[in-house]
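Team,

Forwarding the record for the chain on the shared tracking sheet. I've put the sequence and predicted structure together so nobody has to dig through attachments.
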Amino acid sequence: MPVIKIMKWDLERLLGKVLSVDEILDYLPRIKCEVDNIGEEGEIEYEATHDRPDLYSVEGVARNLRSLLGLGENKYQLIDEGLKAYNLGVPGRPYIALAVVRDLDLDDEAVKQIMQLQEKLHTTYCRRRRKASIGVYDLDKVKPPLYYELADPNTKFIPLDESREMTLKEILTNTEKGREYGYIIANWEKYPILRDSKGTILSMPPVINSEDTRVTIETRNVVIDATGIDPKTVIDMVTIMAYNIAERSRGKKIVFVETIMPDNSILKAPREKGVTIELIPNNVNEVLGTNLDTKQIVVFLKKFDYQVPSNHEGHLVVVAPPYRVDIKSWIDVVEDIAMAYGYDMIGSTAYDLPKATHPGRVHPLEFISITLRKILVGMGFIEVVNYMMSNPQVQLEIFGIEDELITVANPKMEKFTSLRRWLVPGLLEVINANKEKEVEIKIFEIGDVAIPDKSTETGARIERRLGIAVSHRKATLTDGLAIVTTLMERLGLSPRYEKGIISGLLPQRTAKIYVDNTEVGYVGEIHPKILLRIGYDKPVVVSEIVLNKLLMVLRE
């Protein structure tokens, strides 16, 4: 999670309340900020969760605490001044969104927090500027409208923190930011720039801003831009930046900007309101184990700045704050209600629940997982634990599989964009990563997979599986059959094997595993072309067993 640094006195002036150390340690975790340290000079270090980028600077923390503690409402003046910008066409990064914040009162700490918010967004949601990049400029130093376009590599301006003009080409190699982020556009024939109507260049996205438009403590009005490959992301970034910076505005004045796209469509920012969600109080109480009435739920919603335009008994319509990009469904709203109510209060209600009718016991699926784990460790295997999240390239493309995965709507990393549907790819990654360290590798993993299944209510079927992998110079299907047979016999079962076909495995050396006429898994050798594709030079034998099916057989 990103580590954020703020000053206690700065938080207090924005909040309008002096806070003790104990109060900080109590309040910040209530809004998902885990305090790491409070220094002698009043510097607070905390970790903000990835799903709350609006808390990546002190302004977002102050806004959230203001509502949570009942210190006042968070109201903003959203103004339409008819401001426009023009996207003249940048195919590699085709989207730009902008907004303006007026009447700012800045000092060194305020500027520092704006820059921190920008950079933390860059490293997380913007994927180190590959997906999007953000710029903040002194509006009074430019003349609107602004233009986003491609420019000749010999075009010149003074990059941020430099004292001389450089060509766009020089910036990529002669500046620190150019060396760090220039690779994103290095192969382009022309480079993207943002300029005003006089020709003043504000920035070279996604690399660096201009020294001429730097934000200082003298700045009173700023224009914010985000450029990137996805329209939602650039609007999200501009919206978070605008609302957080507006906490430094005397009238909290935010001005819309309409960007005219090359096809004459309009991209307007910032967002005026968040998603609208229907909420049923009974569902809230069922999830939290509470007995809250509708009025209480509305009170808790307002502690997290939700609007409630429709309130009928048994049914609420709620609108999330515009800067809350993490709200996707009603269950996200329930989480905020829980935090507003207080997890400590929810826990206390457990004393009023009916008494248990039987002692706690291990779930059968966990019991068989524990049993298999002990058996395999006793057979000399090492357990590995991979992430349940993966991506299509690892799960499907390497093995030549054309199928579906359960995808993530808002992935934070390119490596984790979907849920895994089998364990073998992860085991193969572990083996390949350790190919120089071990002559023989014997590993296993017990974990869940998610398989697309339209017949289920959620569209996914979750299975607990055991994955086994063995690799050495003479590994063959015989090794796999011996391991699986031993494992089954230790459970008191008699396996039967039939020739089978599994994508990515050698057809002549693959068998499906049956127990009492129920197919419970497979065992086989990884196809040599797959091993060649990943650069591995020893044979690999794998097996994957569905523990849900094995458990059903054991129960019969």
